[in-house]
Structures are given as structure tokens and as C-alpha cells.
Specification:
Order of helices and strands: HHEEEEEEEEEEE
Keywords: Phosphoprotein
InterPro entries: FHA_dom (IPR000253), SMAD_FHA_dom_sf (IPR008984)
CATH class of the largest domain: Mainly Beta
Radius of gyration: 17 Å
Structural class: mainly beta
Shape: globular
Oligomer: single chain
Protein name: FHA domain-containing protein
Pfam family, one: FHA
């Protein structure tokens, strides 16, 4: 195993947190934690060569907007008043989902949803008014701009101005 492979393998494992949580919010979970919670794997990491680029349940995984519209999680999704794809490749153009925001509380490109083989993350795209994650039985969490947050089926993301979306049938 080369030094680069060792660094990648170390990045894919969970580091012990010690006695304190440091700057960890106590609610964030890693993809490995998510696999263990679901019981999909024995907790070992999946070698990078075995990861697929698309979600394993792409045909069913989706988000449902508060308007009732459903969008398949077969590739990244950018949601906003007038969303743009700035970091995409020709092979994987994201879904661009426009939402109404009469009070202009929602940014042009407000949030991105990124599916992976075994998890889905949501990223606030440095929106002006922020993004809130609502998870059943827990306090609302304000997402940190640019930070990837793992979501699970049933989670709801509130963009403001009466617009939200829920995650359904995630891997």
C-alpha cells in the first residue's frame, strides 16, 4: 500500500473523538456511521475502487419539495430561485430546480443535494439566509455554509419563504 493509499484509507475511517467533542456538534454522522446504523456493513470501510458513482437505489431515492414535486436522486441537485451549475462535468450535470421566493429569502443557488453510493449529503451554498435541517425528534440544525451534512430518509430541509423538501427512500 502506498503512502497515498494509506492517507485515503485513514480518511475513510472514523477518528476517535477523545474525551471532548471539540468543535463537533454531536449530531453530525459520517457515512461510515450511517452504514453501521443501518446495518448495511460490518463497519469496515469500502475500498475506493468498489464505490460506485451513482446511488444504489437511484430508481427510488428522491426529494419531495413542499410544492409536491418529486426529483430523483440519480445525480446532484441544485435548488434555488435561479440555480446554476458551476462545478459540474459534462458527464454529470445536476438537476437544476427553481423554486418561488416572493420575499427573496432563498438565494439564486441556495442548496445542493449530492447522492453517493451509500449516502446523501446536503450542502448550503453560502446562501444569504441559511438552511435548516429538521430531523424527527431533534432540535433544528442550521447548516454551516459549504459543509457537507449527511441526511437520512425523513429529514426535511427548510430553505425559508415556505419552501422545504424531504428525503424519501434514501440508500
Amino acid at each position: 500500500m502506498t503512502a497515498g493509499d494509506q492517507r485515503e484509507a485513514a480518511a475513510d475511517t472514523i477518528a476517535p473523538t477523545g474525551d471532548g467533542l471539540g468543535d463537533h456538534d454531536g449530531a453530525t454522522i459520517s457515512a461510515a456511521d450511517l452504514r453501521r446504523l443501518r446495518g448495511d456493513h460490518d463497519g469496515t470501510t469500502i475500498p475506493r475502487g468498489e464505490r460506485s458513482a451513482a446511488p444504489t437505489r437511484a430508481a427510488r431515492a428522491r426529494i419531495r419539495l413542499s410544492s409536491g414535486e418529486a426529483v430523483a436522486l440519480d445525480r446532484p441537485i441544485v435548488i434555488g430561485r435561479r440555480p446554476r451549475a458551476t462545478r459540474s462535468t459534462g458527464a454529470e450535470l445536476p438537476h437544476l430546480v427553481s423554486v418561488e421566493s416572493p420575499s427573496l429569502d432563498i438565494s439564486r443557488s441556495h442548496v445542493e443535494v449530492i447522492p453517493d453510493a451509500d449516502s446523501v449529503v446536503v450542502v448550503d451554498l453560502h446562501s444569504t439566509n441559511g438552511t435548516t435541517l429538521l430531523r424527527g425528534g431533534e432540535e433544528p440544525v442550521q447548516l454551516h455554509p459549504g459543509e457537507h451534512t449527511v441526511v437520512v430518509t425523513g429529514d426535511v430541509v427548510d430553505l425559508g419563504d415556505g419552501v422545504s423538501f424531504a428525503f424519501e427512500d434514501l440508500p
